[in-house]
Amino acid sequence: MFPAMRVKIVGLDPHQQYYIAMDIVPVDNKRYRYVYHSSKWMVAGNADSPVPPRVYIHPDSLASGDTWMRQVVSFDKLKLTNNELDDQGHIILHSMHKYQPRVHVIRKDFSSDLSPTKPVPSGEGVKTFSFPETVFTTVTAYQNQQITRLKIDRNPFAKGFRDSGRNRTGLEAIMETYAFWRPPVRTLTFEDFTNMQKQQGGSNFWSSLVITFGMSV
Amino acid sequence: MFPAMRVKIVGLDPHQQYYIAMDIVPVDNKRYRYVYHSSKWMVAGNADSPVPPRVYIHPDSLASGDTWMRQVVSFDKLKLTNNELDDQGHIILHSMHKYQPRVHVIRKDFSSDLSPTKPVPSGEGVKTFSFPETVFTTVTAYQNQQITRLKIDRNPFAKGFRDSGRNRTGLEAIMETYAFWRPPVRTLTFEDFTNMQKQQGGSNFWSSLVITFGMSV
DNA sequence: CAGTTCTCACCTAGGTGTAAAATT
DNA sequence: AATTTTACACCTAGGTGAGAACTG
């Protein structure tokens, strides 16, 4: 999956052990098609039947709160497939559907049955974060030129398709000289999240947990 | 370092957590030179002054005894350097000296000060294994054709230097068709080790620890 | 014919020994 | 003269979109 989701985590217990995991859930019950002349995704019927749930457990798991908080947690190794019989542990999605990635922070002492092929457990030791700007629509071929350009311009592995003849604009050219530049990040506190989800309030333990999202572009 | 050291471990407590680490210690206090006409390494003076000790902590650390015992533990990412100012965490050695790799099994509850830049602690919670057949002499350029051929024939990354014109012998040709072939392994029990090292006896906890060595060729 | 699969050239990233050049 | 460093071609391994081929 590119761009990869990247998060910064604050407020964990430095000495407690945690798993961090991602799953990807349907946004609605619809199938979509892209209408080129209006540049919009339109509903094209009901969703296909749901697929076996998969969870991507971040490869740095298990790690201490301290370790997680000292790094940007990147999900750039997460892979997607439309093959419902996949045996590579990839996350299985339907093409032409809308999905929302979720980040789960799972306390070790609560993770008795954490598995790549079972839904993430819910309860006191697990907190889940979603960032609405990361909703995406799955395709098997790109439906418009903007997304193709984003992919080619931002993914190092697609360098071979960059049109070096096409000149960058003045601003872009300047940006390129700042190799360390990163787009602005957005911060979402656990309180924001609980409000958004109309959740009934978290334990003290989690009250300071903050997770910040930035795209890896 | 190629060929990489690979070990199989038996007899750990499946539910206990362990680090596994490697360091490389001088075999003697001498510097060597290779005498081509006799195909032998000869003493060529006293060793250079010792170098800051480094430890390679196996990247699968920290893991349970169960996890360690279920896999072949391979040290193929271990890197060597002759640069005493190295800041990449590589193990620093002198060229033209004889060295012996050691494998350390370190119980988590004993590993308070385990660090890549400090000597491995010794004591009740740490057991160390050496395999005399892994002694090697460091060089900056290969000193004889046999070692060059071993490196080129056995290391996939050196495939570009293989002389596909030179025909394999009948036996070698047959061997090559068995992709899964591995050289015989040698088993060393902790008792063997204690005898060899004239150690004063281990705790019950470790009495069944066995470590088996095989080269990754 | 919209959607999917497959093969391919072209990249990133990094592990090899060679041979020339530099060092001591 | 022996040893070490450096630039380089050639690999492994795997992530890209293009475009042809295929599917229903």
From TrEMBL, chains A, B:
GO terms for cellular component: chromatin; nucleus. Residues 1-163 form the T-box domain. Its main location: nucleus. Keywords: DNA-binding, Nucleus, Transcription, Transcription regulation. Gene3D superfamilies: Transcription factor, T-box. InterPro entries: p53-like_TF_DNA-bd_sf (IPR008967), T-box_DNA-bd (IPR046360), T-box_sf (IPR036960), TF_T-box (IPR001699), TF_T-box_CS (IPR018186). One of its GO terms (molecular function) is RNA polymerase II cis-regulatory region sequence-specific DNA binding. The keyword Transport does not apply. It is found in: Nucleus. It comes from the Eukaryota. GO terms for biological process: cell fate specification; positive regulation of DNA-templated transcription. Pfam families: T-box. This is T-box transcription factor 15. It comes from Salmo trutta (Brown trout). The gene is TBX15.
